[in-house]
Amino acid sequence: MPRRLNHVCALLTLVLLLPTALRAADQPAETAARKIKEFQLRDVLGKPVSLAEFGDRKAVVAVFLGTECPLVKLYIPRLNDLHARLAKQGVALVAIDSNVQDTLTETAAFVRRHDVAFPVLMDPDGAVAQSFGATRTPQAFVLDAQHMVRYAGRIDDQFGVGYQRPQPTREDLSVAVDELLAGKSVSTPQTKPVGCIIGRTERPAAGKATVNYSEHVASILQNRCVECHRSGEIAPFPLMTYEDARPWAEMIAEVVSERRMPPWFANPEFGHFSNSSQLSEQERNTLLSWVEQGCAEGDPAKAPPPVTFSSDWQIGKPDLVLKMADKPYSVAPTGAIPYQHYTVDPGFTEDMWMTASESRPGNRSVVHHILVFAVPPGSTFQEQFVKGHLIAAFAPGVPPHPLPKGQATLLRKGSQIVMQVHYTANGRVEEDLSSLGLKFCRAEEVKQEVECGMAINVLLSIKPQLADQKFRADYVFKDDRLLLTMTPHMHLRGKAFRYEAVYPDGKKEVLLDVPRYDFNWQITYKLAEPKLMPKGTRLRCYATFDNSTENLSNPNPAMQVRFGEQTWDEMLIGWYTAAHVVNPASP
To answer: Per-residue DSSP letters for 377-445?
Structure first.
């Protein structure tokens, strides 16, 4: 949702962005002695399909889906496999779309695009969802031959709020069906569903509405949310209009009340940041009141004008555009994808002063992040990475950040450009051809040189089965610098992060404290005012890791973890950007 800056090391997976729209339900669905009444719905081709048509089946699996829910997209291949297996066992699998925001045309396109192999039925008024007690997508129900509910809840336990296991530890839906077919009682008849709240056709108002979308809500969503929640961006659904926002009202209320959205994790006791995305209490209460009062639209004429975003380069026309390769990269539909590295020769015949950069993904649905480094003659990518000499980055919700007049980054003559691209599977075979745009200025225009660097600890050795393991990384400034931004980075076991300045006179100051680090969001914290780091100042970064079973994001709590770039490894990097004077006489 919020605006964040470049120079971000975002080593995430798309799945780990799911908490922007996912959580476990407060209560599992009720299953005891409950029969689903006969219903008839139309599939995406208009054919009527009734529950009675499955009367000869040993069981019926009904899964509630939504076209915009990211978790649904990830589960489609698994549900296709399950459908094929169950069909041979005399079990029907059918999906139901009860989202008011999902039109017939959109759902039909979703079915084609994701090669859905099982019937998808439309429940436009949500009546069938209500009869099942379905609240989220995806949410599964297993009915026996008499259409009694024998299981209700999640598909498996691989995904949750803020975590993703490499593999599920229990495939709840499959287990329930197998136990039913074997004549056994279902051992776990209820689990908490995980997913997006189903968009209802209407929401009962609590008294007279004093808050409406047009006058009170639209401006908040424009300022805080739509940079990501718009077509072509990483957020799972748009929030550009009233029609977009109303069906997602309950989801908005949930993430706002739990303070999951907008993501911002800096302890307010330390530092002042110009890009803080925190909602004010007034903004939070306005959104919650709007939902509670029934989501009134108000007078559309009183709404602020729509926000517009450039469909072209956000930095303006680049002076140089570099493609990562001659042909697209084919992204596998499932599984972990190793980082891809592309080396491009920009043809620098002289030193270049870069004033703006923009990493532009060719396919935003699978490009999770791009990190770009300039590797000068005689150096290597690994050396530049360890030094933290990042020149551009793309990550979800990270806009390009042109430097102010008089500031620039030096790219040495003969440098090669290395683009590290991290892809995440979305359930389909995709292709990507990403690119980089650069803008330059003349050397005499540069007053301050801006560099990206890091405090890094590559000697991590995180013990298994232990929480609260603390490590440190230091960087000493060799001359006076103006600190501009800080970007803490760890992986799935990261728990807390703190930047501290230890000045030459021994004085210490906390620059940034992140008591609850969230791997789902790689946020750059931009100081409201640049802070002087005198020569000899030590930038000290403290990181806390949780490698215990209590950390649900933990890929393997039994493993000793060391430094590495893959998500199941760990990192301790305190990225920063800083400036120093190189030409006092420049304008």
So the answer is: TT--HHHHHHHT-EEEEE-TT----PPPTTEEEEE-TTPEEEEEEEE---SS-EEE--EEEEEEE-GGG
